[in-house]
Amino acid sequence: MTTNTRRWQALNERLKDNEQVIAVTYTLPGVDFGTANGPFEIVGPAGKIGKLVDIMALATEVFATDATEGTVIVGTAADPNGYAISDGITDALAVGDSENLTFTEGALGSIIDPDTTIIVTPTAGVDAGAESGIATVMITILWV
Q1: Cβ-count burial of 132 within 10 angstroms (0-12 exposed, 13-18 middle, 19+ buried)?
Q2: Number of domains comprising the chain
Q3: With bands split at pLDDT 50, 70 and 90, how would you rate the model's confidence at 110?
Q4: Among 32, 58, 83, 114, which is disulfide-ready with 74 (CB 3.0 to 4.6 Å)?
Q5: What tens digit of pLDDT does each residue of 53-77 get?
Q6: pTM score of the predicted model
Q7: Does the pLDDT at position 144 exceed 70?
């Protein structure tokens, strides 16, 4: 049985036991996709299993990344992209506009073990001129 299968089984067992599901959106302000500041750490509620369900970016500076778009990577210290790698944030995303980022699950899947420190790493975009783009990144995880 794979580790991902065991994680899903543990999550499903908790859901069968009618444990309360808690949705938490972690807000990371000032994430700079021009220079890729970070990484950022997230720690969930003690003893809870998590499921990564959403990554969103709200632009606070216009994005200029016409060659390569900036992305959000979610994982652990041992496996930095273990949980997810997002699609790129749209070039020319305007201030005040937001974008829900689709993501591909990493090798660990989207199930987060209890008491895991989650590492969120932005990757810088590339622009023919000067890269820019600052956003508030919001990551939603369901905990049970």
Answers
A1: middle
A2: 1
A3: confident
A4: 83
A5: 999 999 999 999 888 999 999 999 9
A6: 0.86
A7: yes
For residue 91, how far is the Cα from the chain centroid?
19
Pick from 126, 127, 122: nearest CA to 31: 122
Taking phi first (over 0 means left), then psi (-120 to 50 degrees means alpha), and beta for anything else, what does residue 36 get? left
Query: Residue 143 belongs to what H/E stretch?
Result: strand 134-143
CB 71 within 8 A of CB 89: yes
Does the CA dihedral 74-53-86-10 come out positive or negative? positive
DSSP state of 61: S
The answer to whether the bond into 39 is cis (omega within 30° of 0) is yes
Encoded tokens for 70: 């900036």
What span, in angstroms and rounded, lies between the C-alpha atoms of 17 and 31? 38
Whichever domain contains 7, its CATH number is 2.60.120
Query: At CA 7, angle to CA 140 and CA 11, rounded to 5?
Result: 65
50-59 and 84-86 strand pairing = unpaired
What residues make up the domain containing 57? 3-143
